[in-house]
Request: fold
Amino acid sequence: MNAPTTVQKQSKNVILSRIDFTTAGPIIGLILTFIIFSILSEPFLSTANIVNILRQSAIIGIMAIGVTFVIITSEIDLSIGYNMAFAGIVAGAFATGGYGLGFQVSVFVAIPMGILTGAFFGYLSGVARAKLNIPSFMATLSMMFIIEGAMLWFSGAQPLYGIPDSMQWFGNGNLFGIPAIIIVSLIVFIISDIVLSKTVFGRNLYAIGGNDEAARMSGIDVGRYKIYVLTISGALSAMAGILMLGRIGSAQVTAGVGLMLPPIAAVILGGTSLFGGVGSMKKTVVGVLFMAVLVNGLNLLGVGSDGQKLATGIVLIIAVAANAMGNLRK
Amino acid sequence: MLIRPPYLICVTAPVSKANSKVLKEEKYTTLIDLEVKVMIHASTETYLLSTKNIRKSFGSVTVLHDINLNIRHGEIHAILGANGAGKSTLNKIIDGVYTDYSGEIYLNGELVRPQNTDDARLLGIGMVHQELSLVNELNVAENIYLNRFPKNRFGFINFKKMHQDSRRILDELGMEIPTTKIVSELSIADKQMIEIAKMLSMNAKLILLDEPTSALSDKEVQRLYITMENLKKRGKGIIFNTHKLDEIFASSDRVTILRDGLLIETIELNKQKDAKIEAQMIASMTGTEEDELGALYPEKENEIGDVVFEVKNFTGKGFKNCSFQLCKGEILGLSGLKGAGRTELARAIFGADPKIDGEMILEGKRIHIKHPKQAISQGIGMVSEDRKKEGVVGLLGVKENINLITIRDVLKNGLINKKLETNRSEEYIAKLNIKTNSVETLVSTLSGGNQQKVVLSKWLTTNCKVLIFDEPTRGIDVKAKSEIYKIMSDLAKEGLAILFISSEFPEMIAMSDRVLVMNGGKIVNELAKEDITKENIITSIFRENPEEVKVS
Reply:
């Protein structure tokens, strides 16, 4: 009678020790939250609400995907919020000839213009990081102010209305009955996931984040990669800015306010290490959905903005503490 | 009033047969009011510091065997020995860093056992480290009294007293720098003086100087000697670690020589260079008995081919005018002490650090290398000295590390193919006998030897022509060591040209076809075949007297 139980215990321990809690923890958290809200709130599980959650998480999700590349290399990008807002304004201005631009281009030119703007500012941060050796925290913080300044100068702090419908479609249109914003973010996720996990580029990012000196001694041009990741992060936050145009129907100077840190929080919540070398795009998606589900569920239960923020903060602390303890055990 | 550790209350020192003439059974009694009655040894002389049978092991390796060292009052006592002789371990025991040793330390005839460095300071033992431990952003006085600031009656720092007291100590040392000067603006020599001042402010009776001259110019060294003389006149004892014979003759009263953890002998000096004593010192450091070369090393049977790689007049930070040739199938040893410029030279060749001047010729063609990337594409690899920092990515798995450099070989349709990657990793795991649970296991969880084999695998995937091994066996066990020697030997047989840097003489002698000896940033000697002996290497290092390399 005793023998089998020990065996059982042992196998249980083996299974337990094989589970990677930094990966499983956020998934379990997401599922538990989902179940709890399904029980507490009837409309939570409706198709309309699920689609709503996905729509709500799309913009933060794309920014989080961009910043995941950066965090994996143990850098940070604080300029994503303003990059997003400014890209929307630039794309909107080119498409409408607004802000006294005097000319107008096709939406298919205006959108790349917006994305290039974001990529350009990301590239500048990258150069500051790699060539001038400014820590990315400071380089991108400075870039945040520079972008804000450029944006206020360009727009005169005025919002821009009359964004063409074809441009808004990415944010509020549908394709085969599915919101375009969800399809766009899904495509971005799939490509980014492949790039990070299956290409030489992605693999080298892990090496740099894990040990940049060893990466350099193995022939990886570390500085160039840092420029790449910050450029990607700039471009993807700009893409989020284009989606934002359709979500709110106009280009707003204030669109990026409050969107600087949630994507970073989502990345960390998913289990990616803030110190680099560990993480994945899948983890980022889990983190983004976790935050979106939490906010949406509390909203449905009538909890206001105050309670939602409080809950997000508490969940973040628990997640990061669990992660730190998991690492200690190793 | 000195506060003494409570374990001094009634301690009975055991009788040691070896030292029975010095040590009779004694009892230390401490009164409750902490007034200490000390029984003086029944010896003719009371030493400032005296160690009895100090023995220290790391795991199964004993690094110090029964060290009996005596330091007199007002003496400059040099300790000489090659790397790994036990100098720094002995220092750390006296300084309270290591507490798990056997044996006793007597300070002024009194048994002490410092539990940490603060404890050592309270007892009057001061240490000046090679890498200075000052806070660069604070000023001179603040550094001297760091964490012991004099306070006024409101509990605030009494800056006036702090600066006055610091001034007094600096004056005693003949230092003119203002006490308000920020330490980062001082030269290394001045910083060292501040460290000494700090020790004096704590009433140090014994001062340990750990290779204090390594970063000083000749003039600064002279000033240090004067300071040491000064301290000596005030009755302080000075332990002076160095590996430069000239400095010992110029400064020290006595020298103790350590080798392989044994105290070989202590020699009286008279401040004059003496060829006979010098020869005696070198002989003591070298030892006469042959090391058991045994089965640890593979047979030397490398077939040496034509010159494949040539370095001409390499100059950079830490090395000057270095030239050498390396042949196909040859293991070329690069010997010398720490800081001789070997690693600096190798890193410059590999492009990890910039060089100032010099050229390289690989297979008859001049090559230019500014980044490791270029070195690798030319066919030069480097197994770094610091495995953790520069060798492995601990957060990644075995397979990611093995394929780190040549990841492009395992692509299929532009994407990393997991099967190809795993197959190649398994091939190297089998070939090099790497002990790991799976190809996914994080490298940080492997033993040092297996981590090193992962690093080697990484380089073997590149099919390089020249491979630099910088201290490849540091911190790994004997079995893994012999495996690594075997791999090196096999690689040489396959035609790889190897540059082998090592501070351990036995492996240097057993593995190398030729040995270059470096000292002070220069190649000072070249030894081949039967001339490769420990004695010749040590003589080259210690006899040659190269000018200091000062390259900014």
About this structure: The longest strand of chain B covers residues 49-58. The radius of gyration of chain B is 27 Å. Chain B has three domains: 42-124+205-286, 304-379+464-552, 389-463. The CA atoms of residues 96 and 118 of chain B lie 8 Å apart.
